[in-house]
Hints:
Blueprint: H1 5-8, E1 12-15, E2 20-29, E3 36-43, E4 53-55, E5 58-62, E6 66-69, E7 73-75
Amino acid sequence: MRVFARSLAKKTVLMSDGTVVGVLYNITADLKTGLLLNVVVKPAKNSNIPELEKRDGFYIIPFDTVKSVSDYIVIDRKKIRR
């Protein structure tokens, strides 16, 4: 399945339990391998999810925790390791 980056812009990011994390801001990748590393999420207002790493006001979420991408980007809460 192919997903174009522009179709991901500003998608809502949810935890697998339905908790709203925020809106996709960016995706980081390893330029040598092409592997996607992290999703960078602008937090929703009053969002406080302690198990997620927060850097410079954004959540940095490992890409391997992404469970699905459709109308929303869903993060598997069980795979978050802190």
